[in-house]
Write a structure and sequence with these properties.
The chain has 194 residues and is an alpha+beta fold. The protein is 31% helix and 13% strand. The radius of gyration is 19 Å and the shape is globular.
Length: 194
């Protein structure tokens, strides 16, 4: 379990108490850290040369049925390097207006990441299949929206709509003005209309 509090050290210590009191931890590394250090805590978990396949979507809510599906899918995971992660979207991120940035999905909730990672190229098929099956098993609990940072190359052509929602028209207008030839076309591309 990873926690982060952006504020004074005293407020952070109070905010982290529920996590520290949750149960007996094998290792407790929660303590003061710089923003830069916090953003690198998972780097060692993603070694160079590892194979990766990720799927992601917001959950509509974190119901008991969704939690049971997470547990069921995790128990079938073929690689010790893989996992199912929940990111809690809340606080300052949800206080930004939906039209104030490209990212419109500003309500409190959870982003699900199905992270499948392995080292042996011969294990591609079962690991990709596990990620897809886990995503499909959790689909009944998903919201229509998605988070742009975790999309895969096999996302559908209408992925930009689920990523940017009501902001897509504004982004297309910017794309038309700044990149009408679609030179920057990787990741989740916003197609220019001219």
């Amino acid at each position: 379990m990873v926690g982060c509090h952006c504020g004074s050290l005293a407020e952070g210590a109070v905010a982290m108490l529920p996590i520290k009191r949750f149960g007996a931890a094998l290792i407790d590394t929660i303590g003061p850290a710089s923003y830069a250090d916090t953003n690198t805590i998972f780097d060692a978990s993603f070694p160079r040369g590892a194979h990766n396949y990720w799927k992601s979507s917001f959950l509509g809510d974190l119901s008991d049925a969704a939690i049971e599906a997470l547990i069921r899918q995790f128990s079938a995971c073929p690689s010790a390097m893989s996992g199912l992660f929940l990111e809690h979207f809340h606080g300052a991120a949800t206080r930004v207006g939906s039209g104030d940035s490209a990212f419109p999905h500003r309500r409190t909730g959870y982003n699900l990441l199905v992270i499948s990672q392995w080292l042996d190229a011969k294990a591609d098929e079962p690991n990709v299949a596990w990620a897809r099956a886990s995503y499909d098993a959790l689909r009944p609990y998903m919201a229509r929206e998605s988070y742009a940072n975790y999309q895969t190359d096999d996302a559908t052509d209408d992925a930009a709509q689920s990523l940017y929602g009501p902001n897509i028209e504004k982004l297309v207008a910017i794309k038309n003005k700044l990149d009408p030839t679609n030179f920057f076309h990787l990741n989740q591309n916003i197609q220019p209309t001219r």
